[in-house]
Write a structure and sequence with these properties.
heterodimer, A: two-stranded antiparallel sheet, 4 strands, 4% strand, B: mainly alpha, 5 helices
Chain lengths: 253, 200
């Protein structure tokens, strides 16, 4: 069973209870997923807190990296949602840092990747879309629905365009969450499959070990790719959040 | 390609697993039946774990959000503000210092021009004074020389006149001597009258 687990690419996504908690019929156990959520928050918080604790006028390397992340997310939000969007800066920044840290932590062997579970990415996406809808309605009232009515469309085509806009809006939380989830899941499965090839081939003796070099090279290359994907998906999630928030702030096309 | 067979293989035990879970409802919270239930479905799509994940995500992400909003972001904003204001301040100071330096250069040049003009004036004055002094000195010397010349001329004239006075006596004695040599004896009075008539 243990040997089978080693090469089973799905095993890494299993959720194991560490502290079982049952609350009113709901299973709210502290699991390995929860552990890595805590780890993600602790690592990201410690990085940001310690890197900026010096408050140097001329930044150290750590402080500079924290500042660069901050300014990167800040300019991303300002470019896509304007200066009004800066009220959502804490949300976008914490989303970006949380996803980035979770993705990167997940790349360590034997570590759990919390963003490889659809419910986590979906919850984050629903959070974003929920804020977009509530803020849009609170700020613009019915004017928010202008989002679905692009200006300059002929009356004849309007019902069709509105239908398309509504469907595209409703598919946003799905696409936002599935994109991150699927990237993480597929990347980790592929890595595990190639790493599994190395293990099972090298069990076949000298020829197998020679043959295992190819999947080993693949696994190394994939690790580099996954590093890129980890950062890229955090960026994509953050920039799409910025664009959706822009819709809440400026619903007219 | 690896997902499908694994998923397919484990669908059968899934039913068993959920059965086991259902039958062992009395001992809920124990590890074994739950593990079995998890083996059954593809883990990311196992709804049994959703509540726990959402719960802990809400807690961890909520705390993270608050921590960033309350502690980290004000601090980062403060650092960046301090830096940009410091840079602006430094630029202002540099502009101010440049202005001061420019003013100092202008003042220096003006003073230099003034000093040059002053030096020229002093030089001119000194030259004029020296010229005037030389002129008076020259005039004095010339006057002196003129006086000396006049004195010398007067002296010469007096010497000449006294010499001319003697000329008559010398001519008389010479003529007497010549006459004595020629004639043997000379009439002194006659000679003197002759000389006097010649001298006019």
């Amino acid at each position: 069973m243990a040997a089978a687990d080693k090469v089973d690419p799905i095993h890494q996504f299993h959720i194991n209870k560490i502290i079982p908690i049952d609350f009113g019929g709901y299973d709210l156990s502290f699991t390995n997923s929860s552990l890595f959520m805590v780890a993600t928050v602790v690592v990201a918080s410690l990085f940001l807190y310690l890197a900026t604790s010096g408050r140097h006028l001329i930044p150290s390397r750590w402080q500079s990296s924290a500042e660069m992340t901050y300014e990167f997310v800040g300019s991303m939000l300002k470019d896509s949602a304007g200066s009004h969007g800066m009220r959502f800066f804490p949300l976008v920044f914490s989303l970006f840092m949380f996803i980035l840290t979770a993705n990167l932590l997940g790349l360590f062997p034997y570590f759990f990747t919390i963003t490889s579970h659809i419910i986590v990415t979906f919850a984050l996406a629903i959070l974003v879309i929920g804020i977009v809808v509530f803020y849009g309605l609170a700020k613009h009232g019915f004017g928010f629905f202008k989002l679905f009515v692009p200006s300059g469309v002929p009356m004849l085509l309007l019902p069709l365009v509105v239908a398309i806009e509504v469907v595209s809006f409703l598919s946003r939380p799905v696409s936002l969450s599935v994109r991150l989830f699927a990237n993480m899941l597929a990347g980790h499965i592929t890595l595990k499959v190639f790493a599994g090839f190395v293990v099972s081939l090298s069990a076949l003796g000298a020829v197998g070990i020679a043959g295992a070099i190819l999947p080993l090279i693949m696994a190394v290359a994939l690790t580099a790719l996954e590093l890129l994907v980890a950062a890229l998906q955090a960026y994509v999630f953050a920039i799409l959040t910025c664009m959706y928030l822009n819709d809440a702030l400026h619903p007219g096309h | 390609m690896f997902v499908t067979p694994a998923y397919g293989q484990e669908t059968a035990p899934a039913v068993e697993g959920s059965d086991a879970h259902a039958t062992s409802g009395a001992q809920a919270g124990t590890e074994v039946p739950h593990e079995a239930a998890h083996e059954g479905t593809f883990p990311p799509f196992d709804p049994a774990t959703f509540a726990s994940q959402i719960f802990w995500l809400a807690i961890t992400f909520g705390l993270f959000y608050l921590f960033l909003k309350r502690v980290v972001m004000p601090r980062l904003a403060g650092i960046l503000d301090t830096r940009s204001s410091r840079i602006a301040q430094d630029l202002d100071q540099a502009a101010r210092l440049k202005g001061e330096a420019d003013a100092a250069v202008a003042a220096y040049e003006q003073e230099l021009a003034e000093a040059k003009a002053g030096a020229n004036a002093i030089g001119q004055q000194a030259r004029d004074a020296a010229k005037a002094e030389a002129e008076t000195a020259r005039k004095k010397v010339e006057a002196n020389l003129e006086k000396k010349l006049a004195e010398a001329e007067a002296h010469i004239a007096s010497i000449k006149s006294s010499a001319m006075k003697d000329v008559g006596g010398i001519a008389e004695s010479t003529a007497t001597a010549i006459v004595e040599q020629l004639v043997g004896k000379a009439d002194k009075a006659g000679v003197a009258a002759a000389v006097k008539s010649i001298a006019g």
